[in-house]
Structures are given as structure tokens and as C-alpha cells.
Design brief:
Two copies of one chain form a homodimer.
Chain A: E1 10-21, E2 24-31, E3 41-42, E4 45-47, H1 56-68, E5 74-83, E6 92-100, E7 113-117, H2 128-143, H3 159-170, H4 176-186, E8 189-198, E9 204-210
Parallel strand pairs in A: 1-6
Antiparallel strand pairs in A: 1-2, 1-4, 2-3, 2-7, 5-6, 8-9
């Protein structure tokens, strides 16, 4: 190889798939099925396939589906990491995404998947620990002023259940009155006619779902929760 | 070429260099010196050079310096754009950055540069218009809760001058009392001993500068301006 000839830059995507388990953010890791780092738990990731991917996000959706069986939850670009040292195969660019999924949509018996608490991760290959940290930080910040946490909820939930999800993501209690006002302002929920669930002390609580137009996107607050 | 062989993915960086001119955000465009789009104004951009760049940000700093003469102002990753159609040369990934620079640091007589209002752009090649829109939106949102606009100021400024810069970026007036409280909270300014400037009605106004630790980074507000 001539001194001024270099192999192509490696172009990949990585996805931080987050869910809520035991009231804490967890990351879905995939046991690597090839070198480098064969057998290690890692973020679901893979090469961009220019013959089939319309863009990097399309590649992320494909990789997530192929490696975890999860189709199109909420998914957003997080950051792009690059350099000569992050991948032992050579100079690489990885476009990282994060995705949220309700716990009940995760496959229960997938031998190649591991569910790990986001704040107690095992050793991860590449710069995957850094990517998870970026994702958790982004999700926390964004949850203060948006409907993001609803993407961790199942299809139907009560307001107290939704508040618990927000509190688990934010890592702090939320004032109930202020929370309900902010949910009104987000205007992303609709009550399910006639559907009630027995809540605390057997008092029936209204069930809600996310309005269709916000099922794959976000509603934003003018000012954050707590203000 | 065999049907399953593809040329390497094109890896580039693009930089949205923003400044304040006539109280409005402007973009510094560079007249392209090669095909495609030879001679058109475009974002300063170029290939990632794996032999010399430590990462994509390093490439962005290099490209900005080589094409505009601007060295290391505030620079932050914005988004990564990708796909088969955005660059006529083939499937490409561009890591986009935005940078802020005080007007007075721009070269005054650079024949290859054009200063254009961010909201009245000429036709731009590639998806550069979209990248500028993303950058302007990011800067506006971030200016609500951070020290970002100081990177548009010169080395010394009065508080009324800084408030004008915030107002120009946000596109709305800011309450003076609340603004001063927020600047105190950001704790990023220090008065310059004995340096005053004659302000309105010839009343002397204190000159400030950004504290050393915030000259290349941000200080963040707990709650945004206006709350």
C-alpha cells in the first residue's frame, strides 16, 4: 500500500435502546456475534449499507430490528463519534442514536440480549460506555421539557403511572399538581372512553393513551417541569 | 464493477460559522473552489483526512481554519446528515458543526468569503440550507438557557451590549432586571478593573469579559431566560 493510500473510513451506526425496569433506566445490550469483541455485550450496531439504507437513521432502524427484534420505537440521533482508535479495525465514524421502548415490548427470551442498568454497566467495547452516558444524559435533560418519557410507557396508563415514569427517568420526585398542569400543556394525551383502572385504595383512575400524532414524535413544553 | 461492490462512503464535515452583523445572525459562506458546485457559496466543508484528523471535530477545526482563516472559536457538533442523494459524488455522511465568532474577528477582505443573513440565504448546494436552519434553531434554543451568545461578543463589553446580543439572537426583547439576574447566575463574567465605557447619556458603564474557564465552553442556567 502506498504511504498516501488509506483504507476507507469505517461507517457504522450504534443504538442505545433504553427501557424502564424496576423503576430505573436500563440499556438493551446485544452479545456480539463477530470479531472484534466476539461474545461481549455491546450496543446493537453495524455498518451502514449504502445499497439499502436511505440514510444513517434508516441503518439504525434496520440494525435495531435485526439485532433486537424491536421495530421503530421512538428513535433520535444522539451524536457522532469518530477517530482512529475507537474501533480496532481502523479510522471510523459511528452515528449514534437512542431509542425508547416500553419494557413489555422487549422479547422475553432472546438469548443474545442482556438488560443492564444504565448506571451499572459491565465493561463495554469501543466507546459504547461513553455513548450510553451521552444517551442517558440527553434523555434526562429532554424529559424535563417534553413528552419523551411516554415512549417508555405501554399503550394505556393512568396519570399516576405516567408520573412514576417521569420520576424514574428524572431521578427525582415531581409535584403532582404541577405535573398534571404540564401534561395538559403538552396536549399529547387522550382519555380512553370508559376505561378505568383501580388505583390506590381501590379508587378508579382514568386510563389514557398518547394521541396518534405524538406516537413517534415529541410534544415540547415552553418551560420545563418544575418551573 | 461487480454489482455488490460499492465505492467507499464519502466522509465529510461542514461548519455553520455564525456571527452577528447589523443585529442579525449571519452565516459565513465560502465560494467553492472545486466541483461539484464550483464557484457557488457554500458552508466551509471538506473531507475527513484520516491521516491527520484525530476525529471529525478536529477535521472541522482544520477545514474552518483553512477556508476562513478563523482559528478555534466556539465549535460544537450539530447533527450528522447522510444518504445517497445529498452529494452528487455518491453516498455520503457529513458531520455538521456550528461555530460562533465575533464580527470583528472575521477577515474583512477575504475574496472567497460571503457574509449572508441566516434568514435570507442564497441558493446553497447539497443540503446546506437545511444544515443552516438546524444551526440557527439550535443556537436560539440554547441561548435561552446558556452563555452561548457571549461567543458572538468581542473581548470586552458592557451589560447593555451583551443584552443586545442576546436579544438579537433570541429575536425578542429581554427584561433588563431578569437578564442581569440570569447573568449573575451564569457566573461567567468578570468586571475589568477600572475599565468603563461611556454609555447612554454619557453615564459610564462597567466593562466585562468572559472568565477564562468559559471562553471555549458554556455555562448553563437551571431555568431559562424569561422564567
Amino acid at each position: 500500500m502506498a504511504v498516501d493510500t488509506f483504507p476507507p473510513i469505517i461507517c457504522t451506526v450504534d443504538v442505545v435502546l433504553l427501557t424502564l425496569h424496576d423503576d430505573a433506566l436500563h440499556v438493551v445490550l446485544h452479545l456480539r456475534d463477530r470479531e472484534p469483541f466476539l461474545g461481549m455485550p455491546a450496543l446493537p450496531g453495524g455498518y451502514v449499507h449504502q445499497q439499502e439504507d436511505r440514510d444513517a437513521e434508516d441503518a439504525a432502524v434496520r440494525v435495531l430490528r435485526d439485532k433486537t427484534g424491536i421495530a421503530s420505537p421512538y428513535l433520535e440521533q444522539l451524536a457522532t463519534l469518530s477517530g482512529p482508535a475507537r474501533d480496532p479495525r481502523g479510522w471510523s465514524i459511528s452515528v449514534a442514536y437512542y431509542a425508547l421502548v416500553p419494557r413489555q415490548l422487549l422479547p422475553v427470551d432472546a438469548a443474545q440480549l442482556r438488560l443492564m442498568p444504565a448506571d451499572r454497566l459491565p465493561a463495554l467495547p469501543f466507546d459504547h460506555r461513553r455513548i450510553v452516558e451521552l444517551a442517558v444524559s440527553r434523555v434526562r435533560v429532554k424529559s424535563h421539557y417534553s413528552s419523551l418519557p411516554v415512549h417508555l410507557c405501554g399503550e394505556r396508563f393512568t396519570l399516576p403511572q405516567l408520573q412514576s415514569v417521569y420520576e424514574a427517568v428524572l431521578g427525582e420526585p415531581v409535584n403532582k399538581v404541577s405535573f398534571r398542569r404540564k401534561m395538559d400543556e403538552l396536549a399529547m394525551l387522550e382519555p380512553i372512553d370508559g376505561e378505568l383502572e383501580l388505583g390506590r385504595a381501590n379508587r378508579p383512575a382514568q386510563l389514557y393513551r398518547v394521541r396518534r400524532e405524538f406516537r413517534r414524535t415529541l410534544s415540547l413544553l415552553e418551560r420545563g417541569l418544575g418551573s
